Amino acid sequence: MLDARKLNLPAMLASGMAAVAMNLLSVQMAHAEFRLPPIDIKDPDRCARGYVGNTIGQANAVSDKLLDMRKCSYKGANLSAKVLAGALMSEADLSETNLQEAVLTKAYAVNANFENADMTNAVLDRSDFSKSNMKGVKFNNAVVTGATFEGTDLTGTIWEEALVGGEDVKRLCANPTLVGESRDQVGCRVSSNR
User: Fold this and answer.
1) Average of per-residue pLDDT across 83-95
2) Where are the beta strands (DSSP E) in 39-151?
3) Which of 50, 90, 103, 182 has CB 3.0 to 4.6 Å from 69, enough for a Cys bridge?
4) pTM score > 0.90 for this model?
5) Phi first, then psi: what are they for 126, rounded to 5°?
């Protein structure tokens, strides 16, 4: 039987409260606001660097200078075979852009416009396309791994021969704008609700 006199009740209480505080703190930190660096409006070549891309690293988005394409317009531009690893692309206009064979590793493209862009043979790895407009994008033979498309409009997208990771398929198939032939090309299972 436990002897209450031998238990250090204040120490146990303090330890328990510290554990609760640490849990609350970690939850609060997990929901902390994600902040990007400010756009360098004084840099006249900021948007032009998108036509060159990164030249140092691909897989881990290593670069000698931040590739900041935010709020830049590349509408109808040719960015084929560019390495856009680690690019900040939020609110950029890449509609009708040729992104064939482009490498978008760890790109942050939240709220960007890719409508009718061609991403044939592109690599989309660990990139965030949340809340973007991707209507009519061609993902033919593209490689998609660890990408986020939460709240993205995927209406009329083409995924012929695309290599899409298993978890990516699950997340894409949960997107209500991925319908019809696009769902079949991604590999969504047929549901009875369809």
Assistant:
1) 95
2) 103-105, 123-125, 143-145
3) 50
4) no
5) 55, 35
